Amino acid sequence: MYDVESIWRSMKARCYSSNDPAYADCIVCREWLNNYKMFENWFIDNLYDCGSDKLQLDKDLFSNGDKIYSPETCCLLPGRINALISYKRNRRYPFPTGVNMASNGKYVATVRSGSGHVTGTFQTVSDAAEFYAKNKERYIKRLAVAYECYLPGKIYDALMNYKCEPF
User: Beta-carbon neighbour count of residue 75 at 10 Å?
Assistant: First the structure.
């Protein structure tokens, strides 16, 4: 079901061949960089059933912002959850993630949650960023509860304690 070698190659390409600024400072640990078998063993050891959802390699949940792919910082997450906790900030964009400026000069924060979304309008960018962070945390916790029967305890606990920084 999983093409582990393709996942390994993609991980390395994101760190060392990508022009995506979200991966500018990413690295792969020495243990995995040139040793596919070490990565494959870790992947198989950390694989779990997630119903019909496919798991994705994640470096963000346990890394504290270090942007390193390693056995200590990585885990496998359902794609819906992984998309929420990945941090992809466009460095050329002047506002925090999830915040835009409306035509009336106010700041709008939007958190996409499944098929819907939560939106708020604010006078300041910091109020909008706080709204975004709080609602994103709520949605992550809601998904953790929904996936609780599948998630390993360490992953579930990390999601329930996840903090989204507003800036």
Answer: 22
